[in-house]
């Protein structure tokens, strides 16, 4: 449970940045080399690499090096952590809404 | 678009902490006073209030004061920002998977 919570922290931190979300979007088209990914962004390569490492630490992307080229690939399973967390919260919220609706509709039904 | 991106940043930052996620869970049962919400946590009230403010800044909760009691309430619409972002990424990912499947299955079909 603590591990799951730490993982969620890292994933949410990785997602809390527009450059990193753009990298995720670019990688949804398929694996790509760091150089190509960095092109649309007006930042230095070291700054860009920090974003790559944040995504890698969160497990959202995997990277590997062949010669001088580092390639990045999206790992969708990690984003499903966020999906699961949201689904869980939604279920709790809906359960409460259902209870409230019952409270509101029951008196009308018995009148 | 920039505003949407800033809002996503704030929401993801707010979600990147176990105490704040626990507060969201507690509030899914309905509005509650800060004092009651703080009880399960082994932190000082000023530290707890920082978490409340982070959630409030992100628009995930609303708070109001009546006398000496500040009450918090969850605003689910804000979490749907995350839902929408995930759905969008999932759609892009699935479109790519569909294209890959077509590439793999088409030669078999024609053989």
Automatic annotation (TrEMBL), chains A, B:
Query: By its UniProt entry, which NCBIfam families does this protein fall under?
Result: HTH_metalloreg
The chain positions of domain HTH arsR-type read 1-94
Query: What is a GO molecular function of this protein?
Result: DNA-binding transcription factor activity
Question: Which Pfam families does the UniProt record give?
Answer: HTH_20
Question: Can you name this protein?
Answer: Transcriptional repressor SdpR
From which organism does this entry originate?
Dietzia timorensis
* Taxon lineage: Bacteria, Bacillati, Actinomycetota, Actinomycetes, Mycobacteriales
Q: Which domain of life is it from?
A: Bacteria
Q: Which SMART domains match?
A: HTH_ARSR (SM00418)
User: What Gene3D superfamilies does UniProt report for this protein, alphabetically?
Assistant: Winged helix-like DNA-binding domain superfamily/Winged helix DNA-binding domain
């Amino acid at each position: 449970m603590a591990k799951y919570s730490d993982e969620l922290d890292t994933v949410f931190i990785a997602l809390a940045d527009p450059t990193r979300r753009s990298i995720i979007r670019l990688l949804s088209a398929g694996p790509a080399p760091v150089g190509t990914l960095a092109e649309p962004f007006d930042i230095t390569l070291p700054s860009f690499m920090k974003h790559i490492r944040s995504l890698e630490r969160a497990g959202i992307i995997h990277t590997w090096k062949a010669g001088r080229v580092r390639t990045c690939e999206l790992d969708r399973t990690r984003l499903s952590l966020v999906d699961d967390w949201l689904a869980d919260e939604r279920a709790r919220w809906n359960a409460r809404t259902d209870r409230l609706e019952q409270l509101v509709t029951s008196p009308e039904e018995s009148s």
